[in-house]
Amino acid sequence: MEIAKIESIGSRLVVATAGNSIYMLDSSTDGRWRKRARVGEYEKSSQTITGIARLRDSTIVVMLANGTLHHWDIDRGSLVVSELPRSEGVQRYTGLAALDGQMLVAAVMDDHTAHLFVLSEPASSK
């Protein structure tokens, strides 16, 4: 499994693969990481996973290139889908990080420059 993105939740890892799959991993007593569960069904999506970030204790946010955000509550198994506000000139969203309750979103603009946006409020729900 080729890992493209990685985030931790306590002793578990959430990884996005190059094949557009997301898995939760647990460490075993022998020190190896094993798949615990698949998160979502992204393999057949036309949108590439461009970021994953832990927003709160049990919430992982998955960002797709078009700005769709999937907020997965790992403890409850629930999903909330939202959209990033479409800023003028954004060609695609390319990265996601969480810092002190805020989301940092990287984007490539139409003029091929890179921009970093800071979101302090949740994106609008679908």
UniProtKB/TrEMBL annotation:
This is Uncharacterized protein. InterPro entries: WD40/YVTN_repeat-like_dom_sf.
